[in-house]
Design brief:
With 71 residues, the protein is α+β, with helices and mostly antiparallel strands. The chain has a single domain (8-70), classed as 2-Layer Sandwich (Alpha-Beta Plaits). Helix content is 14%, strand content 25%. The strands form 2 sheets. A two-stranded antiparallel ribbon has the order 1-4. A two-stranded antiparallel ribbon has the order 2-3. The longest helix is centred in the middle third of the chain and has 5 residues, at 22-26.
């Protein structure tokens, strides 16, 4: 699933999130939560960077981005 040495980080564009909760349902490690109808990451360290949230988000509000600090 995820590459444990991946330098990608999960990012959210809150203004694009409509609060559908699809990403929450697909997250295999339960690090996503809806708070006030917006997606929130509860624990970035537990995220396995599998990309399922990015793949399933109909609004492109959540994605994986390379961590520029790691380069």
């Amino acid at each position: 699933m995820a590459n444990p040495k991946s330098n990608k980080q999960i990012k959210i564009i809150e203004t694009w999130c409509k609060g559908c909760g699809i990403c929450v349902e697909f997250c295999p490690v339960n690090v996503l939560k809806l708070i006030d109808d917006k997606i929130t990451i509860t624990d970035k360290d537990k995220c396995i960077r599998c990309g399922l949230c990015e793949l399933r988000c109909p609004d492109y509000a959540i994605y994986l981005e390379e961590d520029k600090d790691e380069k």
